[in-house]
Amino acid sequence: MDAVLCEIRPEEYEAFQRVAGTAFSYVPTAESMERPRPFWDTARKFGVFEPERPGAVSANLGMHMTVPGGASVPMASVTAVGVMPPHRR
Known about the structure:
The protein is built from 2 helices and 4 strands, in the order βααβββ. By secondary structure, it is α+β, with helices and mostly antiparallel strands.
């Protein structure tokens, strides 16, 4: 069965949180899953699906970085990279 990399859809929010929670050794509660929801941007969340649930997830946050000369340039800050136990090496 082939794994598929794709953006996380809004209806997959809780599945994303469960994978990230498992990777960071915590069980997300309903309350802890709701806190970041207002900041949820599906264009910046990714999952590797096999076939209907994510086996791995990652996200990035849009930020700006000051570079030499004082200019501010956009960048992506990688966060929430997690892999479910059966998919780890």
